[in-house]
Specification:
The complex is a heterodimer of chains A (458) and B (550). Chain A is an alpha/beta fold. Chain A has 3 domains: 137 residues, 3-Layer(aba) Sandwich (Rossmann fold), CATH 3.40.50; 118 residues, Nitrogenase molybdenum iron protein domain (Rossmann fold); 159 residues, Rossmann fold. Chain A contains 17 helices and 14 strands. In chain A, helix 12 packs parallel to helix 17 and helix 13 packs parallel to helix 14. Chain B is α/β, with parallel strands linked by helices and 550 residues long. In chain B, strands 1-12-11-10-13-14 form a 6-stranded mixed sheet, with helices on both faces. In chain B, helix 11 links the parallel strand 6 and strand 7. The longest helix of chain B is centred in the middle third of the chain and has 29 residues. Chain B is globular. The chains are: A alpha/beta (458), B alpha/beta (550). At the A-B interface, strand 1, helix 2, strand 3, helix 3 and helix 4 of A face helix 4, helix 5, strand 3, helix 6 and helix 7 of B.
Chain lengths: 458, 550
């Protein structure tokens, strides 16, 4: 057994995390920063942070992930990281010519208490920031929240650094896609375009972390939100923020600073959440939903109708981020599956109450934990087995030990290739998710069926 | 020194390496260029095997985009991580433990279903703001207690992450206290990420901790005539399994591996071996030297990457023991393994000979893997380490001349005295001198540069900019580096082989490993993918007519 020391009996732990269901803030900030065009993320800390984040993102996306580091040494840790950061800003601009450097902090520089805005100002005073270039920052202490918090903080920094209330109102909305995949961002853009709505999508990692093989490497791929557009965020009529944890803080900051009202929605995962997304956009912008989108919705519903018999009453365990797990749980409940074990590593009690509310009609006891870990999830599964696991690659160890099919979803996916090209958001994404869930369930049924009950048509 | 002679003639690079060096530096601000100039060297080997000086193991310039990681990664990730029956507890915020969880591909093979194996687990104190402000010792103590109650491991190791040193948690005191309380070994490593200049500092800290707190704790021995330790072999992709197989067939008894496929008990008994075999000199030479000083165990540099190199290493081991039976068994194994190697070489050489490779990786792999490329007839035109020291480039002969700077001084250098009871030199100085005359030099590593051709480029701690530039100027047929470089290189249209984790394949050690590697390089270099980089309309954009069939 791979996880041979995991037993069903749950003992209270107050200090030890085993097999985390989250990681630290800076990686979320790095990912978000890659969603600005010609932006070079910069990790203000030890080299290892940057190396680990770049490695983790590279393994998941199988794409180049560029970022600088302040390369702290013991001296920098004692005397502060100012000298290192000013040098880094100078070198990054001189050697790599980004338009924006997006600095995020680490547990090291946060514990020291480096004052990043002051250091940026000093770098500017010393002429280290070329004209027309920008340095922004987000505080992302690794000992608070999770990678989702880091993403949210960097998106908020985009608002804080670029958005201004001055200027004319423009007939457009801001759209914050949340901590989702490049293909999801692309799909969200497409749906908004179908609705005929002009939107500034930020951040936008599509065409940055899903680039073609051309034989020519470009450090700054064509994707990413333009600085010019970030400067117009304050002119928009409103903001639609997807995912309360990842996108909420930026949306609220825009409201406070620039009086741009916001709607904070769940990520459009599954039927009902996508319905809310489309319907909100329709009402905000006063547009009619085109037949094309209604048609897509109908297809998803059709697929659900066809697949329903295989979903009904099947138990599922999920691990991931709150913004994803909430609409996903709702989706599973809507197709009459029974999500019974839900764990996120990200802290926050709201997660638990929302999951409780969504699973009220599930005729089975439900376990849910925010700030939990995969060890706990595994123990729950040992107590009450499930038919399906949904989560990142680390769940494959549980899947194999317990012989349960796994649908890979979330971050990181380290052992399968191609997922970055297929969205899971929207109606089309919903069809794909269901196809993968059904494949997993039916592959298992085919594997386990006695010969006389092995079916051709299912 | 025989490799010096094998190094071959200069490959006469175009553009000339001196010009390339100038061009690499031209893209930098003046101060950066001045510093980097010492890290970029055109190789030259004189008849004594002396090579030019290269700057290594010094601070990376902030903002340059380096390959390097941190001390924690070197200590927890590299050296100690592979040991399966220890609970490796990361004391810090969640990230460090998360990123080093199963990502290095150290394989391990527990003896049975009841055997302890924690490699699939990640243990962390998941430090929160409260601990940053009020201290984390209490949580650490409690986490150790919980780990003990849940798992009863053989030992518990504690790894400090960056904030731990800053907030002043005394992890060593906690370790002592919990060791006393629980009755199992609890060992703390002050491997905060900011110490040193790269992973290398972490290797040293890991070596020190293991040596002080584990090696020599258990005097019991297993039977075996030729008892060896394998140092600096981490069982990436199953390399150690392949070497273990060869050792068994040759009749060598493997007491301990540091640390691929290893257990706590192996470390505790490692001092009972009669010879230390050093694979990755960079990460483990401290242990080899300290065991020599305390227990009198000599060490021998070996390399099991490359079929010839493997044969040569096995012969060196046999030569050390001076036992005709062992020598005969080694020859038997070589004779049995070589035909398959030769047959495949015959097949692939025609497709690979003369092609060009670059290797920028690690602290020994950039050297060792040149052997494999040489065997398939490929030239290494540029190479460099990510975190090695000058002795790994220039050979241990430079050790007395290496300046100890402030960053190195931060890492404790243990003063090791002979163990009053157990020091027993396994070889007399006379015998050692005699073996040296016959070509078997103990306690030595000649370094990478003396084995490389003159006129090749050596680049230490290569930056992203330099990598991009070298691709543009030389268009090599393959580049070996790590995951962060992987997709930059591949998107440039150049095949890229990861030599930290082998791109999820391997093993590449030993004879069977060499076969795997030849096949892999043949597959990569000759993949059809590279033919399709341009669409037909990009190859021939001219239009002749509209709707030609009209």
């Amino acid at each position: 057994m791979l996880l041979r020391h995991t037993t069903a009996e749950v003992r209270e732990r107050t200090a030890l995390t085993i097999n985390p269901a989250k990681t630290c803030q800076p990686i979320g900030a790095m990912y978000a920063a890659l969603g600005i065009h010609r932006c070079l993320p910069h990790s203000h800390g030890s080299q290892g942070c940057c190396a680990y984040h770049r490695s983790a993102l590279s393994r998941h996306y199988r794409e180049p992930v560029m970022a600088g580091t302040s390369s702290f040494t013991e001296g920098a840790s004692v005397f502060g990281g100012q000298a290192n950061l000013i040098q880094a800003i100078h070198h990054l601009f001189a050697i790599y010519d980004p338009e924006v450097i997006a600095i995020h902090t680490t547990c090291l520089s946060e514990t020291i208490g480096d004052d990043i805005p002051q250091i940026i100002a000093k770098a500017r005073d010393e002429g280290k920031v070329p004209p027309g270039r920008y340095v922004i920052h987000a505080n992302t202490p690794s000992y608070v929240g999770s990678h989702v918090t880091g993403f949210a903080n960097m998106v908020k920094a985009m608002v804080e650094y670029f958005a201004t209330a001055e200027g004319p109102r423009e007939k457009q909305i801001n759209l914050i896609p949340g901590y989702v995949e490049p293909a999801d961002m692309e799909e969200i853009s497409r749906m908004v375009e179908e609705l005929g709505i002009r939107a500034i999508l930020f951040p936008d990692t599509s065409k940055v972390l899903n680039t073609p093989q051309t034989g020519r490497y470009t450090m700054y791929p064509p994707g990413g939100v333009r600085v010019a557009d970030l400067k117009r965020l304050g002119h928009s009529l409103g903001t639609v923020a997807l995912g309360p944890l990842a996108s909420g803080p930026a949306a609220r900051t825009l409201d406070t600073r620039c009086k741009v009202p916001c709607e904070i929605l769940d990520l459009p995962l599954g039927l009902a959440a996508t319905d809310r997304f489309i319907d909100t956009l329709r009402q905000i912008a006063g547009v009619a939903v085109p037949d094309s989108l209604t048609w897509e919705r109908g297809r998803l519903l059709d697929v659900i109708t066809d697949m329903h018999q295989y979903f009904f009453g099947r138990k599922v365990a999920l691990a991931g981020d709150p913004d994803q797990l909430i609409p996903l749980t709702e989706f599973l409940v809507d197709i009459d599956m029974w999500p019974i074990h839900m764990v996120t590593g990200t802290p926050g009690k709201k997660f638990e109450s929302r999951i409780r509310a969504l699973t009220r009609e599930v005729p089975h006891p439900v376990n849910v934990q925010a700030g939990g870990d995969l060890f706990l999830l595994h123990q729950w599964i040992k107590q009450e087995p499930v038919d399906l696991l949904i989560g990142n690659t680390y769940l494959k160890y549980i899947a194999r030990d317990e012989d349960i099919p796994l649908v890979r979803f979330g971050f990181p996916i380290l052992d399968r290739i191609g997922h970055i090209h297929f969205p899971t958001v929207g109606y089309r994404g919903g069809v794909r998710l269901l196809e993968r869930i059904l494949d997993a369930l039916l592959d298992r049924q085919d594997r386990d069926a006695p010969e006389e009950r092995f079916e051709l048509v299912m | 020194m025989s490799e010096v002679l094998e190094a071959g003639s200069p490959p006469a690079l175009t553009p000339p390496p001196e010009e390339v060096k100038r061009e690499l530096l031209a893209g930098y601000p003046t101060k950066v260029a001045r510093k980097r100039a010492h890290h970029i060297v055109v190789n030259a080997v004189d008849p004594e095997g002396t090579v030019p000086e290269i700057a290594a193991n010094v601070r990376t310039i902030p903002g340059i985009i380096t390959q390097r990681g941190c001390t924690y990664a070197g200590c927890k990730g590299v050296v100690l991580g592979p040991t399966r029956d220890i609970v490796h507890l990361t004391h810090g915020p969640i990230g460090c433990g998360f990123y080093s969880w199963l990502t290095r591909r150290n394989q391990t093979r527990p003896k049975g279903p009841e055997d302890l194996n924690f490699l699939t687990y990640c243990f962390s104190t998941d430090m929160q703001e409260e601990q940053i402000i009020f201290g984390g010792e209490k949580k650490l103590r409690q986490a150790i207690q919980e780990a003990y109650e849940l798992f009863q491991p053989r030992a518990i190791t504690i790894f400090a992450t960056c904030p731990v040193g800053l907030i002043g948690d005394d992890i060593h005191a906690v370790a002592r206290e919990m060791k006393e309380k629980l009755g199992i070994n609890v060992i703390a490593f002050s491997c905060e990420g900011y110490k040193g200049v790269s992973q290398s500092a972490g290797h040293h800290i890991a070596n020190n901790g293991l040596f002080m707190h584990v090696v020599g704790l258990d005097d019991s021995t297993e039977a075996g005539k030729f008892r060896v330790n394998l140092l600096g072999e981490y069982n990436i992709g199953g390399d150690a399994f392949e070497i273990e197989r060869l050792f068994e067939e040759c009749g060598l008894t493997l007491v301990a591996t540091f640390s691929g496929n290893s257990t706590y008990e192996q470390f505790a008994r490692a001092h009972t071996a009669d010879l230390n075999l050093v694979m990755c000199h960079r990460s483990i030479n401290y242990m080899a030297d300290m065991m020599e000083a305390r227990f009198g165990i000599p060490w021998l540099k070996v390399n099991f990457l490359g079929a010839e190199a493997t044969a040569k290493s096995l012969r060196k081991i046999a030569a050390y023991f001076e036992d005709p039976e062992l020598a005969a068994r080694v020859e038997e194994v070589i004779v049995r393994e070589m035909p398959a190697v030769a047959a495949l070489l015959e097949e692939v050489r025609g497709r690979l000979a003369g092609k060009k490779a670059m290797l920028f990786v690690g602290g020994s792999r950039a050297h060792h893997y040149q052997e494999l490329f040489r065997e398939i007839g490929m030239e290494t035109i540029a190479a460099g380490y990510e975190f090695a020291h000058r002795d790994d480039y220039e050979g241990r002969r430079v050790l007395p001349r290496i300046k100890v700077d402030a960053d190195s001084r931060n890492i404790e250098e243990l003063q090791v005295e002979p163990d009053p009871r157990r020091y027993s030199p396994r070889i007399t100085p006379e015998d050692q001198a005699r073996l040296a005359m016959a070509g078997l030099v103990l306690q030595d590593y000649e370094g990478m540069m003396p084995t490389m051709a003159c006129g090749t480029l050596v680049v230490d701690d290569i930056s992203h900019y330099e990598t991009e530039k070298l691709i543009e100027l030389y268009r090599p047929d393959i580049i070996c580096a790590g995951i962060k470089e992987k997709y930059v290189i591949q998107k440039s249209g150049v095949p890229m082989k990861q030599l930290h984790n082998y791109d999820y394949s391997g093993p590449y050690a030993g004879f069977q490993g060499a076969i795997n590697f030849y096949r892999e390089i043949d597959r990569m270099v000759n993949s059809k993918v590279w033919r399709y980089l341009k669409a037909p309309w990009q190859e021939h954009p001219e239009l002749t007519a509209t709707y030609v069939w009209e």
